[in-house]
Amino acid sequence: MRPRPIQHCNHCGAPVEHRVPEGDTHLRAVCPACGHVQYENPRNIVGTVPVWEGRVLLCKRAIEPRHGLWTLPAGFMELHETTEQGALRETQEEAGVDVELDGLYCVVNVKPVSQVYLLYRARMLQPTWSPGPETLEARLFSPSEVPWEQLAFRTVGETLRRFFAEQQTGHYNLQVFDID
Description:
The chain is of the alpha+beta class. It has helices at residues 83-95, 154-167; strands at 17-19, 28-30, 37-38, 43-52, 55-61, 70-71, 74-76, 99-110, 115-124, 135-141, 175-179. It folds into two domains: 1-40, Ubiquitin Ligase Nedd4, Chain: W (Single Sheet), CATH 2.20.70; 43-178, Nucleoside Triphosphate Pyrophosphohydrolase, CATH 3.90.79.10. The strands form two sheets. Strands 4, 5, 6, 7, 8, 9, 10 and 11 form an eight-stranded mixed sheet that branches. The chain is elongated, with a radius of gyration of 19 Å.
């Protein structure tokens, strides 16, 4: 599931060549006309694990991919924002809930699609929410109530399994894992 390779220079529009530039170690899109090197980097996904009285708020997706399946409130980080700002923005946009961040909870490397998830533990300030246009509904779930077979992404399932296991101990460690 690799994205289509870069075909044209984003500076001058000329067709690019794919080669390893001098002094580099990776294949890059290099413009033979102006010399510009275009780098492709992973995309950051930021969001939260919002909790109220031990239950986690999940959102049912109103958009593709995975329309109609459940996920944590998260999305692409925007330019000029911190990971914390992005996580708060995405939580507000998707779930319409005010939260207070309790620290970075997990970093997930999703290598097949070149994404990095940064999810924060978050305390809901009130048990109220108002889902935005990207969410069909939002609901609180205890571990036994989570619709495990209806989760949108493997990252969400693995994050929730780890979170609920640690929730029982009351001690949370930074989780770092890969999804291949």
